[in-house]
Amino acid sequence: MSITTTNQLRMKNNELDKKLEKHNQQVMLDIVVYLRVSSMPDAQVELVRHDLLDMTLAAQERNEDISTIIGTDYKSFCDEIILNSASKSGRDKLKEAVAIIFSGLSILLLIHVIVSGSLNQWIQNGFSTFKINLYIPIGLGFVLNAILLLSIAWGLVTWIGKRAFHHTQMADNRKSYSPKSRYLKRFLIGAGIGTFLMISLYVINKLDSIVLFTVHAFILLGVCVVLYLIGKWAS
Questions:
Q1: Are 220 and 110 in contact (CB under 8 A)?
Q2: 134, 218 Cβ separation under 8 angstroms
Q3: What predicted TM-score, i.e. pTM, was given to this entire model?
Q4: pLDDT tens, 175-201?
Q5: Taking phi first (over 0 means left), then psi (-120 to 50 degrees means alpha), and beta for anything else, what does residue 40 get?
Q6: CA-to-CA distance for 23 and 138, rounded, in angstroms?
Q7: Which of 64, 126, 132, 201 is disulfide-compatible with 59, CB 3.0–4.6 A?
Q8: Which residue pairs from 20-25 have beta carbons closer than 8 angstroms and sit at least 24 positions apart in sequence?
Q9: 30: which DSSP letter?
Q10: Cβ atoms 102, 228 nearer than 8 A
């Protein structure tokens, strides 16, 4: 299936999804998120999604929900689909990586340009480059920061996808969970991540004084645009 056909099917599925009842819509969202971080190609994910939407909408007309079709163990249902489907090709995996890395890097570079203050000086100087240094240093700290943030973003997307059914199934079986244990677990995870990020960013900030090279602000903006467009194409 071509990219255009896949995108058309995705838009059609998005319209059908709006017709779902709240619970069915949440379960369907969990299924799609889980499948998208799996080894299944996007085209197959949308085909499976389309079939499930048709069946769920038919079930709604009979006053039934999605569990009457696929059962209540949504994760096992998805794992069975993944097991019996084709895997993403090397090209698909490469495009997925390019979409995440290039899109994220374009945002980080844009923030770096804005924070540097060069553009602000240029504007305040009446858009004149006279006596203004528009060269922006790229330090070791920025490079390490970009690697850290992109790695965290990639890992977070995968982690959220793998735990797509956690909150839905917890809501369905809330009585079996202790509120105190849930809050304590969230606090410990949040505190651990926060501490790690603070230490990492402190070390990276110290290393930012090590300048690797400098780039003109306008060239850097052009690079941001190119990276964004490539990431958009790959997504």
A1: no
A2: yes
A3: 0.72
A4: 445 566 667 777 777 788 788 778 877
A5: beta
A6: 48
A7: 64
A8: 20/53, 20/56, 20/57, 20/60, 21/60, 21/65, 23/65, 23/66, 24/56, 24/60, 24/65, 24/66
A9: H
A10: yes
Instruction: Scan for tokens 């090590």, then name that residue.
Output: 210
Which has the closest alpha carbon to 39: 85, 91, 104? 85
Identity of residue 168: T
Distance CA 44, CA 68 (A): 23
> Which tens digits make up the pLDDT trace of 4-56?
688 899 999 999 999 999 989 999 999 999 998 888 998 899 999 999 999 99
CA distances from 87 to 19, 41, 42, 148 (A): 30, 6, 10, 28
In sequence order, what DSSP letters do the residues of 54-66 get, joined into one string?
HHHHHHHHTT--T
- CA-wise closest residue to 30 among 167, 144, 222: 167
Strands 135-139 and 211-216: antiparallel
Distances (CA, A) of 37 to 25, 34, 96, 107: 19, 6, 10, 22
Domains of the chain: 3-83 (1.10.1900), 90-234 (no CATH)
User: 38 by DSSP, 3-state: which?
Assistant: coil
Q: State whether residue 129 is helix, strand or coil.
A: coil
